[in-house]
């Protein structure tokens, strides 16, 4: 049997808490391969011009039954790497058609080399623009599972750019949906090829992204999104991790397939089919309203107790209306080692506290984010009683590929429960603040999927409460944190109640307190019902940790 996402999550060990250890304040270094999105050209200053700014709102030219892509490299590409690139395409393309659906139209795709923007790869009008070559042994004579000679991270970025060609001729509304769909599709192709022992394509992994998604979302829309175009994000990698997680939640939550049966995960292909139909009959430019309506039509199952399209709209990363100003971000992670020595991060019992700050100017497509560097951020961690558990500082530095500056922290001896981490940066314009949450859990190995909860009140403080559910076993509930294990192992929803917890035991009868799926601070959602109810429904297609608001009945 092939490994599933669920199994991989359990290997990562949501509750297999590794011993924390002190790490010096620093920033990691790594190869920097980044996706620049879909462009139609560059300004005289060398900045990309997003496709959306040039698209006409007329019906697209659609190939009946789906298009077909062919490939070549032009004279700018070093011949030593030409066959490697073509082998990659011929391996990835048929799998992408199976998992992502056919391209919107037939097209010949040419690879072009241009290192004027080091580290950035682009898709532009039938061309994939690369700025570096894969790290492989030359002369290249082929790649097999038994004798690999490929660069997993380079392959992942080029696969991402190839999937942009599937949308050539149509335009989604912003980077959150175009890049989110494309990166989720590239990750799905990578998972499939790994399971089939065909090729190791490892860029950003869905396991890492899904485990961290709620912790990143807690930073709010002003930090996480705030611009329609990912190229101008202060930390692009965080954007390219959180937007595909939105689609992975739909991909895993809406499928009727067994976990790990990647070929049966059809949500992205179904979504593309419906988008193509709209583009052929209405407009090549697909507005947000149509995108959400399409998600709603394809999504029978709720996400976090909300209709899927409503849930998507409530996610901070899909906001594109970030205000001007200066912003600070903080998020905790536990770092373990994954394939090829790459970091895998989870949000409990952290070993690092990551932080970054930036200034945003302009609005909409003109928005630009500039990192604030060489300033000192004061950090603190507090328990549910407000007692300081740890204090320190970090000097802001330019992020590497997938990390920011961080301070090491050791939570090994801390009592099990929820904790708040805060960050403060004093600027000439005044101080700015940020906060996030994590929990330290018991030394327990979870054999099946589960849900970790952090219970907070409407003011961001901790709620003294305990969850219970007829559908689950409460494995752990202490200090405003809990872990529940469902009785079932499928995707069926979990009906959960949260009780007031004045003396450590829930009162009899109806619940006095309950949780509502959080509408994160600065979320663009205006559709959540603020009226508490006795019971909410939370589907569990994957292992994750959520910060939940508790409100009085």
Q: Name the strands of the widest sheet in spatial order.
A: 2-1-5-6-4-3
Poorly predicted sequence stretches spanning 5 or more consecutive residues: 1-30, 444-448, 503-543
Q: How many strands in all?
A: 23
Mean pLDDT: 79
Radius of gyration: 23 Å
How many helical elements? 10
Structural class: alpha+beta
Largest sheet: 6 strands, mixed
Q: Which bin fits the share of residues in helices?
A: 10-25%
> Gap between N and C termini, in Å?
46 Å
Molecular shape? globular
Portion of residues in beta strands equals 25-35%
What would you say this structure looks like, in words?
This protein is an alpha+beta fold. 24% of the residues lie in helices and 27% in strands. The protein contains ten helices and 23 strands. The protein has helices at 5-12, 79-100, 152-164, 175-195, 206-217, 221-224, 236-253, 267-281, 288-298, 308-313, and strands at 34-42, 48-50, 69-73, 107-113, 120-124, 127-130, 325-337, 343-346, 352-361, 368-371, 376-382, 388-395, 405-408, 417-427, 430-440, 451-456, 465-468, 472-478, 481-486, 494-500, 513-516, 536-538, 544-552. The protein has a six-stranded mixed beta sheet. Strands 7, 8, 9, 10 and 13 form a five-stranded antiparallel beta sheet that branches. Strands 18-19-16-23-21 form a five-stranded mixed beta sheet, with helices on one face. Helix 2 crosses helix 3 (152-164), helix 2 (79-100) packs across helix 4 (175-195) and helix 2 packs across helix 8. The relative contact order is 0.14. Mean pLDDT is 79; it is low at 1-30, 444-448 and 503-543.
């Amino acid at each position: 049997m092939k490994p599933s996402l669920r199994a991989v999550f359990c290997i990562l060990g949501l509750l297999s808490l590794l011993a924390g250890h002190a790490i010096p304040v620093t920033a990691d270094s790594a190869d920097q391969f980044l996706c620049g999105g879909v462009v139609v050209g560059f300004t005289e200053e060398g900045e990309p011009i997003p496709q959306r700014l040039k698209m006409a709102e007329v019906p697209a030219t659609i190939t009946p039954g789906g298009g077909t892509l062919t490939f070549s490299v032009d004279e700018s590409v070093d011949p030593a790497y030409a066959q490697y690139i073509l082998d990659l395409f011929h391996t990835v393309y048929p799998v992408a058609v199976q998992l992502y659906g056919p391209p919107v139209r037939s097209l010949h795709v040419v690879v072009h080399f241009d290192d004027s923007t080091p580290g950035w790869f682009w898709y532009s009008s039938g061309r994939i623009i690369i700025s570096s070559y894969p790290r492989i042994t030359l002369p290249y004579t082929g790649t097999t599972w038994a004798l690999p000679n490929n660069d997993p991270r380079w392959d992942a970025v080029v696969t991402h750019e190839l999937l942009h060609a599937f949308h050539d001729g149509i335009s989604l509304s912003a980077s959150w949906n175009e890049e989110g769909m494309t990166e989720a599709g590239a990750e799905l192709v990578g998972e499939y090829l790994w399971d089939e022992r065909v090729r190791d394509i490892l860029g950003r992994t869905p396991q890492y992204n899904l485990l961290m998604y709620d912790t990143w979302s807690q930073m709010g829309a002003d930090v996480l999104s705030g611009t329609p175009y990912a190229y101008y994000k202060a930390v692009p990698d965080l954007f390219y991790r959180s937007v595909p997680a939105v689609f992975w939640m739909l991909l895993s939550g809406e499928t009727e397939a067994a976990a790990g049966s990647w070929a049966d995960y059809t949500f992205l292909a179904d979504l593309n089919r419906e988008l193509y139909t709209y583009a052929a009959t209405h407009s090549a430019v697909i507005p947000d309203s149509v995108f959400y309506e399409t998600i709603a039509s394809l999504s029978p199952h709720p996400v976090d107790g909300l209709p899927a399209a409503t849930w998507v709209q409530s996610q901070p990363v899909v906001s594109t209306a970030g205000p001007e100003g200066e912003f600070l971000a903080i998020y905790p992670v536990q770092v373990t080692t994954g394939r090829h020595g790459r970091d895998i991060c989870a949000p409990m019992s952290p070993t690092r506290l990551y932080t970054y700050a930036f200034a945003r100017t302009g609005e909409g497509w003109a928005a630009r984010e500039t990192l604030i560097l060489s300033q000192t951020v004061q950090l603190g961690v507090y328990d549910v009683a407000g007692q300081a558990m740890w204090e320190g500082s970090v000097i802001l530095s330019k992020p590497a590929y997938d990390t920011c500056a961080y301070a090491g922290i050791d939570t090994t001896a801390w009592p099990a429960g929820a904790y708040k981490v805060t960050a403060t940066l004093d600027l000439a314009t005044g101080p700015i603040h940020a906060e996030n949450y994590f929990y330290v859990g018991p030394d327990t190995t979870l054999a099946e999927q589960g849900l970790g909860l952090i219970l907070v009140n409407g003011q961001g403080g901790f709620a003294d409460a305990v969850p219970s559910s007829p559908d689950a076993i409460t494995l752990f509930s202490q200090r405003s944190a809990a872990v529940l294990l469902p009785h079932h192992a499928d995707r069926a929803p979990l009906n959960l109640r949260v009780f007031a917890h004045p003396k450590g035991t829930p009162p009899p009868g109806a619940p006095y307190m309950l949780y509502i799926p959080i509408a994160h601070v600065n979320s663009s959602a205006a559709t959540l019902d603020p009226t508490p109810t006795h019971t909410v429904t939370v589907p569990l297609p994957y292992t994750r940790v959520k910060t939940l608001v508790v409100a009085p009945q």
